[in-house]
Structure formats: structure tokens, C-alpha cells
Design goal:
This protein is of the alpha+beta class and 107 residues long. The protein is built from six helices and three strands. The protein has helices spanning 2-16, 20-31, 36-43, 47-59, 80-93, 98-103; strands spanning 34-35, 63-68, 71-76. A hairpin with a 2-residue loop joins strand 2 and strand 3 (71-76). The longest helix is centred in the N-terminal third of the chain and has 15 residues, at 2-16.
């Protein structure tokens, strides 16, 4: 039963990671902590969109926020995620499953 529960939790993690925008935010946070303003400038996303994605990442336990007065600094909590994203990107760069992903088919 534990394995099934762990796999279900992993599936939920992959749902959180299914957004290219959230992956981009995680990539920036893996370099260094950032404010919402900083992430908005780095990504070109709107401030409300960045905030929404950060809420999702926080609720998944992937990032934390530290408040300094009115300012908030976000940081990556789980560096395992960096490896997952990096491995996924390497997989794509090697050409694996490119036609299936491009067509939107699933095995």
C-alpha cells in the first residue's frame, strides 16, 4: 500500500510540474532566492501570474517564502525537483519521445 500511496503522491507532484511557467520559476529559484518582482522581470510573466504559480509551488512544498516587511523572498525548498526537471529536459534534448510529445499522444 505504501508504494501505491507514494506513486499517487509522485503523480500529484508531476501535475504541479506540468506547467512550463512553473518549471521556469523553479529554474530561476534554483539559482538563487528571488522576489515576485524579480521573477516577473526574469520571466516576462505578469505579477499576478507569477504570484499564482508561486502559490501552487508553495502548497506543493517546493518553495518557501520569507517576508521582509512588505517584501517577500521565495526560495527553492526541495532541490530534488531540480534534478527531475533537468532529467526531463535532458530526455527531450536526446530526442526521446519527441514525436509522441509533439502529437500529444500518450502511451
Amino acid at each position: 500500500m505504501t508504494r501505491r500511496r507514494d506513486l499517487a503522491a509522485a503523480a500529484e507532484l508531476f501535475k504541479v510540474l506540468s506547467s512550463a511557467s512553473r518549471l521556469e520559476l523553479l529554474a530561476h529559484l534554483s539559482d538563487s532566492p528571488e522576489s515576485v518582482t524579480g521573477l516577473t522581470e526574469l520571466t516576462g510573466m505578469s505579477q499576478p501570474l507569477v504570484s499564482q504559480h508561486l502559490r501552487t509551488l508553495r502548497s506543493a512544498g517546493l518553495v518557501s517564502v520569507e517576508r521582509h516587511g512588505r517584501d517577500a523572498e521565495y526560495r527553492l525548498l526541495d532541490h530534488h525537483v531540480t534534478h527531475i526537471v533537468g532529467d526531463a529536459v535532458a530526455h527531450i534534448e536526446e530526442g526521446h519521445d519527441r514525436p509522441a510529445l509533439a502529437e500529444g499522444t500518450h502511451s
